[in-house]
Amino acid sequence: MEYTEKVMDHFMNPRNVGEMEDASGVGTVGNASCGDIMRVFLKIENNIVIDATFKTFGCGAAVATSSMATEMVKGKTIQEALTITNKAVMEALDGLPAVKAHCSTLAEEALRAALWDYAQKNGIEIPGLEEPKEHSH
Questions:
Q1: Ramachandran sector of residue 77 (left: φ over 0; alpha: ψ -120 to 50; beta: rest)
Q2: Which of 32, 116, 31, 17 is nearest to 64 (CA)?
Q3: pTM of the model
Q4: Is residue 34 annotated as part of the catalytic site, yes or no?
Q5: Catalytic residue (choose from 40, 84, 103, 119)
């Protein structure tokens, strides 16, 4: 299985690792079958994601996609954050092996779950954001 240089870089030197004490929103998603659990913390002020961190238990691709997703979301508005898809994360990493594509989906879902948590805590509706689904696969 071949990983790109960017994937290896984000795996060996992940950005934004750690729990955030005063997070505006926290999203946790997991895939029981492969054992990956991803938690994303977002700090949001004036509709802008000013900081993002993550904790991921999982394979190198899961760590790399979390790292890249948190890098991509910083400085974005909430609406822009919703445009960060698994495809965008994979492209930013110059691709992932097909068997690891689900890791980038987890990263997208964790971001959205954190945004959902933020919306719930603040009693706001974010157009285009749906309640996270529980995963059974």
A1: beta
A2: 17
A3: 0.93
A4: yes
A5: 103
Active-site residue (options: 4, 6, 28, 34): 34
Contacts of 93 (CB under 8 A, 6+ apart): 4, 6, 7, 10, 64, 65, 68, 104
pLDDT in tens, 67-102: 999 999 999 999 999 999 999 999 999 999 999 998
What number of other Cβ atoms are within 10 A of residue 102's Cβ?
19
Amino acid at 68: M
Q: In Å, what is the CA distance from 76 to each residue of 1, 7, 127, 136?
A: 33, 22, 16, 31
* CA–CA separation, 18 and 132 (whole Å): 22
